[in-house]
Amino acid sequence: MIRDLFILFFGAAVVNNFVLYRFLGICPFLGVSKKTESAAGMGAAVTFVMTLANLATWLVYNYVLEPNGLLFLQIVSYILIIATLVQLIEMYMKKYQQVLFKAFGIYLPLITTNCAILGLTLINTIDGNDLISTVVFALGGGAGFTLALLIMSGIRERLELADLPKPLEGAPIALITAGILAMAFGGFGGML
Amino acid sequence: MADDDSLFGTFIRGCWVQNPVLRLLLGMCPTLAVTNTAVNGLVMGGATLFVLVCSAMLISLFRRFIPAKVRIPIFIVVVATFVTIADYMLAAFIPEIHKILGIFVPLIVVNCIILGRIEAFASKNGVVQSLADALGSGLGFTLGLLVLASIREALGFGTIFGYAVFWAGFKPMLVMVLPPGAFLTLGFLIGFMNWYDQRQAKLACVECGGECE
């Protein structure tokens, strides 16, 4: 049991990395990876919301949508759950967790349209995971997202000083770096 | 050309001048994920175009009745409804491709191009103008996907839409249809666009003798 959960976590975080292998959450990956600090903030915020969102959608799917034959409402209800959750977390933090609110700050509202969150809830539903696996999978996905963001931001901080051909500056070199990074992560491919 | 407010100008702006994939870098996830073959890219572009056009027109029609404070949730629900329709239609008519595209069809909901065009254009302009804008951006997105997918399929499988495009002994580079190939191809493609733009700007400057700066 514990072994299965570990494989699930490791698979989501490293082998099938959400950003570099499944292409989820590319926008924040490119947008917020210029500084290590902001990368860490974004990673933590995503992991947090991801875990809560998967918990909520699992409950709604298994206790509301499935028993009542409302599966056609899946996409609408999931995106509404995520949007509401982000809003509630933001309100709660603003009132009771000033330190965290300052740390997550601007990243929270951006998370609603982060496809890694919605994508992960859909994958969990398709795979038919139980509640514990769902939460572990979400934690793994968040850890993988944070890992990719941190590595990328480390590289990009150095790239700032590099002498690049002018047309490749900015987004193109970030994408090429991500490609090489994805090849490196491809090395984990045969592990599971 | 970017300031042209005519219907055609609006269309061209979305399609080329501000191409979502190649210039604005919006909607990156589906762009990278489903462009391993030209057919997948085309279907994904078509589905996004359908959702964008339908939701932009509906919202532009009701723009006077949508309260400003709750506009984003309303936009999202409208978009999610059309995505559900697109999802079921793809599953019914082309189930094989629907299976390959997988979760990226439902993920059209969070494609920033759609919310971006609705918020920036359709919620403020008339139905016909919004239609031109949505068609432009949607076709621009499809075009970007198709170019990227064709390059990757040609280098990775040696084919485009399943037809062989290289000589007989051509050895395909498998890496191009794997995730790293997506990042590399898009990176170089955007680099090429930048190079072309900078060259054009330079040529324009030579013509007027450097006075335009």
- Strand percentage of chain B, roughly? under 5%
Number of domains of chain A: 1
Count every helix of chain B, treating DSSP H or I runs of 4 or more residues as helices: 8
Mean pLDDT of chain A: 87
Given as residue ranges, the uncertain stretches of chain B (5+ residues, pLDDT < 50) are none
Q: How are the strands ordered across the major sheet of chain B?
A: 1-2
Amino-to-carboxy terminus distance of chain A: 16 Å
End-to-end gap of chain B:
19 Å
Q: What is the rounded Rg of chain B? A: 19 Å
Order of helices and strands of chain A: HHHHHHHHH
Question: Radius of gyration of chain A over alpha carbons?
Answer: 18 Å
Q: Strand-residue fraction of chain A?
A: under 5%
Name the largest protein-protein interface in this structure.
Answer: A-B, 43 and 41 residues
**Which structural class do the helices and strands of chain A define?**
mainly alpha
Biggest sheet layout of chain B: 2 strands, antiparallel
Please write the string of helix (H) and strand (E) elements of chain B: HHHHHHHEEH
The profile of the biggest β sheet of chain A is:
none
Model description:
The complex is a heterodimer of chains A (192) and B (213). With 192 residues, chain A is mainly α. Chain A has helices spanning 2-15, 26-31, 36-65, 74-96, 98-104, 107-111, 115-127, 131-159, 171-186. The longest helix of chain A is centred in the first third of the chain and has 30 residues, at 36-65. Chain A is globular and about 60 Å long. The relative contact order of chain A is 0.20. The two termini of chain B are 19 Å apart. In chain B, a hairpin with a 2-residue loop joins strand 1 and strand 2. Chain B has helices at residues 7-17, 28-33, 38-61, 71-93, 95-101, 112-122, 127-157, 179-207, and strands at residues 159-160, 163-164. Chain B has one domain. Chain B has 213 residues and is mainly alpha-helical. The radius of gyration of chain B is 19 Å and the shape is flat. Chain B is built from 8 helices and 2 strands; from the N terminus they run H-H-H-H-H-H-H-E-E-H. The interface between A and B is large, with 43 and 41 residues.
